[in-house]
Amino acid sequence: MAWANEVCEEDSEERAITVASMNEIAYLFQGWLPLVVWQQVDAPEYRSGYITLCVSSVIMIGTCFAIRMLGNREISYKRRQQGQRNGSESCEQLQPYLEQFQTQENEKRYGFQDSALELGSVKAGFSSSSTLAPTPSARDRYYGGAASIAESSQTEIETESCHKRAN
Predict the structure, then answer these.
(1) Contact between residue 137 and residue 106 where contact means Cβ atoms under 8 Å apart
(2) Which residues contact 9 (CB under 8 A, 6 or more apart)?
(3) pLDDT in tens, 110-141
(4) CB 121, CB 128: distance < 8 Å
(5) Domain shared by 24 and 81, yes or no
(6) Stretch 141-166: mean pLDDT, rounded?
(7) Which of 57, 88, 115, 148 is the most buried (most CB within 10 A)?
(8) Do 79 and 8 have their domain in common?
(9) 105 in a domain, yes or no?
(10) Do residues 119 and 80 both lie within one domain?
(11) Could you give the 3-state DSSP secondary structure of residue 90?
(12) Cβ burial 93-125 (10 Å sphere, 16+ → b, else e)
């Protein structure tokens, strides 16, 4: 029954009818079938009970495969419909959303904002010191990889030591 809840997750009415029907059919068979096929006079063989059990197991397994096939068909149909809907949008329409997503990811990972990088001396690639020594920006460190990070750390150390000597 848990599988029925997952298959019918988008439609509450369909889920309610499916689960209620499954419960009702289970109670229906549990009420009379054991009295007929598991009779005490057939003990200890219970030939009719074992035959009924095997047949009902095969039917249930077949039903599970049919439900899985139909569920996968429905999912692929929904994906195709979603793809057609999304495919109609042009790249130009999606570009602002992509840039916004990239900016948010950069802020989460590296704690900087693109708008701050585009302002003043950071955009020019110079520090605000009197020597105007070039320092790599956070964007360069992000896109440059490990080598750029090592270079930027060395440049910052050299710049700090120059400032200390000057003072």
Answers:
(1) no
(2) 15
(3) 665 544 444 544 445 544 444 444 455 555 55
(4) yes
(5) yes
(6) 55
(7) 148
(8) yes
(9) no
(10) no
(11) coil
(12) eeeeeeeeeeeeebeeeeebeeeebeeeebeee
- Residue 70: closest CA among 13, 7, 17: 7
pLDDT of residue 84: 72
> H/E element holding 112?
none
Amino acid at 149: I
**Token pair recorded at residue 39:** 């009779």
Task: State whether 118 and 83 are in the same domain.
Answer: no
15-60 pLDDT, tens digit per residue, is 999 999 999 999 999 999 999 999 999 989 999 999 999 999 999 9
Same domain, 125 and 72: no
As a whole number of angstroms, the distance between CA 52 and CA 43 comes to 15
Q: Cα(66)–Cα(7) distance, rounded to whole angstroms?
A: 13
* pTM as predicted: 0.47
Question: Is there a domain that residue 161 lies in?
Answer: yes
Within a domain: 37: yes
Asked if 4 contacts 68 with a C-beta cutoff of 8 angstroms, the reply is no
Query: Which residues span the domain enclosing 12?
Result: 2-87
Report yes or no on 9 lying in a domain: yes
Q: Are 9 and 15 in contact (CB under 8 A)?
A: yes
Number of domain units in the chain: 2
